[in-house]
Structures are given as structure tokens and as C-alpha cells.
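Whiteboard transcription, Tuesday session. T.W. wrote the C-alpha cells on the left side:
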């Protein structure tokens, strides 16, 4: 979010912004897929069903990158067609999702420790 807002205010150029953001796309996809599979294996159905759409969206977004682009965030297209605003909105939604998941995981961990 901070990097995208720096790009919006012209504090950094598009190429450095996109290279910073693109290096975190693959770890995000892998990490979220691993967490989703772990929730399926451990039979936490509600958390699995909550994580499945986000993991699917991350994989879809990574797979659907056009062949000429630098990555999910492309410096030549980030200012076109309102992509910067959509990337910013997506980042805010993911921040809210991860905040919700953090407190759900914390509650689940405390509940498991109390029950044991």
C-alpha cells in the first residue's frame, strides 16, 4: 500500500515500484496456497473456505499475466485504465482480509491451548 501510494504521489518511478511489488507476488501465492492446503488437511473447514477464494484469486492473477509484461505489476500499464486505483483497492481488501485472518487464527490458537 505504501509503495503504491508513493507511486501515486510521484515519489518513486513506476519501474522501481513495480519491481519492488513483483518480487513479493510469488511468495504471496505460495504462502497463501500452503496455508489453504494446511487448513484443508487439518479439517478447519470454515477457515479453508474463507481462504480458498483469495488463494484462487492470487493464482489466477499470477497465471493471467500477459506474455510481454514484467509481472503482475507492469510499469508501462500501471497508469493506464485506472490500474493503479484497482491495485490500491485490491491491496486494501487484502490488508483487511489478513487482519481478519490474524485475529481468527489467534482466537483459534488460544481456544486450542485452553481446551488442551
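and on the right, the sequence the group agreed on:
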Amino acid at each position: 500500500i505504501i509503495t503504491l501510494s508513493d507511486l501515486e504521489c510521484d515519489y518513486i518511478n513506476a519501474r522501481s515500484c513495480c519491481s519492488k511489488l513483483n518480487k513479493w507476488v510469488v511468495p504471496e501465492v505460495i504462502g497463501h496456497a500452503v496455508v489453504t492446503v494446511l487448513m484443508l488437511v487439518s479439517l478447519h473447514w470454515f477457515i479453508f473456505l474463507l481462504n480458498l477464494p483469495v488463494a484462487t484469486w492470487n493464482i489466477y492473477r499470477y497465471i493471467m499475466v500477459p506474455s510481454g509484461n514484467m509481472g503482475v505489476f507492469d510499469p508501462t500499464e500501471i497508469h493506464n485504465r485506472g490500474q493503479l486505483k484497482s491495485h490500491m483497492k485490491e491491496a486494501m481488501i487484502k490488508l483487511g482480509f489478513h487482519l481478519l485472518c490474524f485475529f481468527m487464527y489467534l482466537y483459534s490458537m488460544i481456544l486450542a491451548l485452553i481446551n488442551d
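Someone added at the bottom: The two ends are 39 Å apart (CA to CA).
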